[in-house]
Amino acid sequence: MVSVERTILIVKDWIIMNIEQKEFTPNMPIPSLYEISRTLDISQDDVEQAIRELITEQILTEKYQEGYCVKPEPAFFYPVNELRSITAMIEEAGYTAGTIIISQDPEIPSLDDKKLLNITDEQMITVVERIRTADGMPVAYCLDKIKKPDLDYLHLNDKISLLQILQDNPEFKVAYATSEIDAISYEPYISNALECAPEESLLLFKQVHYNEEDMPVLYSMNYFKSNQMKFQIKREMK
């Protein structure tokens, strides 16, 4: 519901002004309904409605046993309409990107893998399981499936970006990708790897990468904490 009551707009603007002036900071509880009501001489019902609207607009959030808080801005920004590595995303946010390799093994592809990577025979694939970090803190859990079983050069530690490594191989040089984003409430193994609290949700960013011959070469599943990420896409009128 969008407010048409002037008193509700006054409350919303007052809260937003205090956020802009750094009086109310991210994760900081704002004053109680009673305190805001007394400060602005507006009914508590209208104050509560204003806060509910700001929660809907993702400016405030409600924390269990803490009350209403200023919602922090996500640390990382990813433009969906650009093919950008997680390394670049982390570094552009001012952090040092790192990688923890959990496993890297040749595997038999599943039926879904074969469909996505256009595999028609018994060809093996390389599966890489990693945690991407920013200043040592986990940011993304990555599961990458590559259409080749013998990519030993992936073990190079001086190149953090998998996309950059693949660019060095003409057959695997990525030209474009198709993407999907799914919301996941909780996934025990991945949530634990990303040090999530039980109430923290995940965003799954799935991409199939194609080379210049329009052949799929890489299927990536990247899991992020939803409160750390902001995705943006530019849409044009046709």
Average predicted confidence as pLDDT? 85
What level of helicity do the residues show?
A: 25-40%
- Give the termini separation: 31 Å
Q: How many separate structural domains? A: 2
Low-confidence parts: none
Which SSEs are present, and which pair or pack?
Elements: H1 6-20, H2 33-40, H3 44-56, E1 60-63, E2 67-70, E3 76-79, H4 86-92, E4 97-107, H5 111-117, E5 125-134, E6 137-146, H6 162-167, E7 174-184, H7 188-193, E8 202-211, E9 216-225, E10 229-232
Parallel strand pairs: 3-10
Antiparallel strand pairs: 1-2, 4-5, 5-6, 6-9, 7-8, 8-9
Helix pairs in contact: 1-3, 2-3
Tell me what you see in this structure:
This is GntR family transcriptional regulator. Keywords: DNA-binding, Transcription, Transcription regulation. GO terms for molecular function: DNA binding; DNA-binding transcription factor activity. The chain has 238 residues and is of the alpha+beta class. It has 2 domains: 65 residues, Arc Repressor Mutant, subunit A; 157 residues, 3-Layer(aba) Sandwich (Chorismate lyase). The protein has 7 helices and 10 strands. The strands form 3 sheets. It has a 6-stranded antiparallel beta sheet with strand order 4-5-6-9-8-7. A two-stranded antiparallel ribbon has the order 1-2. Strands 3-10 form a two-stranded parallel ribbon. Helix 1 packs across helix 3 and helix 2 crosses helix 3. The longest helix is centred in the N-terminal third of the chain and has 15 residues. The protein is elongated, with a radius of gyration of 23 Å. The two termini are 31 Å apart. The model has no long low-confidence stretch (mean pLDDT 85).
